[in-house]
Each structure stands twice: as C-alpha cells, then as structure tokens.
Amino acid sequence: MYLSIQYLRALAAIMVVIAHSNHKAMIYNIDLLNFVKIGGGGVDLFFIISGFIMCLTVDRNRQSFTSFMKSRVIRIAPLYWILTCVALTVYLINPNLVNSSSTHSTSIFSSFTLIPQGHPYLINNAWTLSYEFFFYLIFASFLFSKDKQKLFTSIALIILVIVGLIFPPAHPKWVLNPATFITNPVLIEFVLGIVAYKIITNKMISLKIAAITTIVALILLIAHNFDCSLLPTSLGRVITYGIPMFLLFVGFVSLESKMPKINLLYQLGMSSYALYLVHPFIITGITLVMRKIGLINIGPLYVTALIVGSAIAGFLCYKFIEMPIDRFLKTKIKNKPVTA
Known about the structure:
The protein is mostly helical. It has helices spanning 3-27, 41-60, 65-93, 108-113, 127-141, 149-166, 178-183, 187-201, 207-226, 236-253, 263-270, 272-292, 299-334. The protein contains 13 helices and no strands. It is globular, with a radius of gyration of 20 Å.
C-alpha cells in the first residue's frame, strides 16, 4: 500500500471529522473550527481514492464480478452493519439522538441495504457508501473486458452524469433521492480516481511536476476555503472539491518515492474507514457527557475532545473490531472447501 494514500486517507477522514465537529460546536455557539470551510471535501477525496484503489486491486488480482463484489461486501459491510445495529438501538431508545437535524424520516431498510429511497440512514454519513457500492457494481460489470474495463466504467459513469444534467431530477438537492443518486455528478470523482491511476502507474509526470501539482491543489483548496460558495452549476462540487482533490492526489501520490513513514499519519490512514463510521457516535457521546458535567462551554476543550476522541475511537474500532472481523472472514473464505 502506498504511504501517500494512507496519509491522504487520514486527511480525508480528519476533514470530515472537523466538518461534523464544527457543525455540532456551532449549535453551542463555539466557532473555533468555523475557519475550516472545506471539511466536506474529504468525501470527494475518498471517492477519488476509491477509484484508484479499485483499479489497483483488479490489476493485481484479476477477479470475476461475483468474487469482486463479495470481497467488497466482506471488507465494508461487517463493521458498517455492527455500527448500524448500535445506531438502531439508540434510535429505538431515543429517536431524537439520531438525525435530529434532518427534516426527513430515517429509513431502517435503507440503512442496512444502502439502497437509497430518499431518506437518511441511521449513520447519516453512510450515504457515501451507497455511492461506493454503486461504483463497485458499475466497475465490476465490465470485468469481462481486461483491456477496456476502466474505459467502459468511466464512459458509463460519465453517461449517467450527462443524463442527469440533461434531465435534472425533481429534487436535486437531496443526495439520496433515487433519481439524483444514479446521476449525481460526484460519480465523476470515481472517474478521476481511474484517470489518476493511469497517470501515476504510467509515471506520466516527473517529481518536479508532481510537487508543483500538489502546491497548486493546496492553493486552490485554500482559496476555496475563503470563498466556499459552490459554482452555480450542477457540477459545482466536482469543480470546487473534485478537481483540486484530484490534483492533490495525483501530485502527492506521484511523490511516493520521497515519502517518509510517519507512523501517526499511517495509523490514522489505516483506521480511516472505522474513524469515518464511528465518529458521529463519539461526537454525540462527548457532547452529551460534557453538557452533563458543565464543560461544554469551554470551547477549546470541547472541540479538542471531539477531534482527538474521534481519532482514538476510530483507531480502537479499527484494531479491535474491523481488522479481527476482516481477518476472520478472509480466513473462513480461504479455508472453505471447494464443491463441484
């Protein structure tokens, strides 16, 4: 695994944690994190990383549609379902603790199946997993073509987005509206991940160009942080988040040969999936505890607890839940007898 990608995973996860921590803190008039306007862009970086990693995965180990989808379910679903069961328990005890800020009712069916029906999930930020699995389905559908698989995948996703631009869905602002879902421009970010794979694996840019690309990407992101209004087009998110994140990914990963190992960032990257899923629980839990003991108005302590607490919980969840389950399931499948 690329060190650079683990660092970018860490960045993406922390960006999302900061965005959600800021949202919670602002409820209590604590604006210490409000200077970070682009935390949501971590999701776009995750999509680009996913596009790259899936290309890397099938090129290293050619798979059928079934084996590919099975491996994706085994990798992603167990931890998600465990935490969704936790969220369901909380929801049944006190519904106000789950999606309290949403005007839409929570869907238990969609929460477990990741099939969007226009309602939020028990783990609200899990909407991104619906896009991940939709991408996996499109990606795996073209595994029959070894040479053109990535091209066919890219064309299919681009066509879906074009259809959505020509025939806009009735409710474009709600990300889980079924029509919006299958034509959402964020699908282009998976294509950007595929393009990044071609650029990086074919060594199409030098170290110097890679450094310049990384710097340009950071400048664009910083500029957007000061003016975070999206461009007035349906492609606004892809342009303001996706393109800079694509440039950052291509530039930074192309510098892999010069990348030192920073263990904290590496571990944070390795645990980024667990962190992404578990941090809403931690943010809510810390908020309830600090409000109960009267410390919530101490802004620096509160926001530090949210971010550091989420990072620690993510690592512990990764080490003691996610990875043991992953190893167990892979061992069971590996040792499963072959039947005629």
